[in-house]
Amino acid sequence: MIFFGSAARSGMNALINGSGNYIVNFATAICDGIILRIGLALLFGLGFKMQHYGFWLGDALAGFTPLWIRLIFYFSGKWKSDAYAG
């Protein structure tokens, strides 16, 4: 599951980086890296008492977070505007 999350992330990473939208990139990194990765790991590991299996599951599921955020960004069409061009 972690493999699929990583594979789905790379194509959408290129879209965000290519559009020059650093705000969406930063917000996605914070959500993925801190909020959801730690939050889901604690929820499954401690909250649902799954111990180390829950920590791994939380880490794996958080890997799909950038995919969903970036799909919304893509389908909204905001990546087409050059409002972020420096």
Instruction: Output the helix-strand order.
Output: HHHH
Helix content range: over 70%
Helical segment tally?
4
Biggest sheet features:
none
State the separation between the terminal residues, measured CA to CA. 37 Å
**Mean pLDDT score, rounded?**
86
Radius of gyration: 15 Å
Beta-strand proportion: under 5%
Q: Given the C-alpha coordinates, what overall shape results?
A: elongated
The count of DSSP E runs of length 2 or more, i.e. the number of strands, is 0
Domain tally: 1
Uncertain spans, ≥5 residues at pLDDT below 50?
A: none
Protein structure class: mainly alpha
Question: Could you explain the architecture of this structure?
Answer:
The chain is mainly α and 86 residues long. It is built from four helices and no strands. The termini are far apart.
Topology:
Elements: H1 2-19, H2 22-47, H3 51-62, H4 65-76
Helix pairs in contact: 1-4, 2-3, 2-4
Summarize it:
79% of the residues lie in helices and 0% in strands.
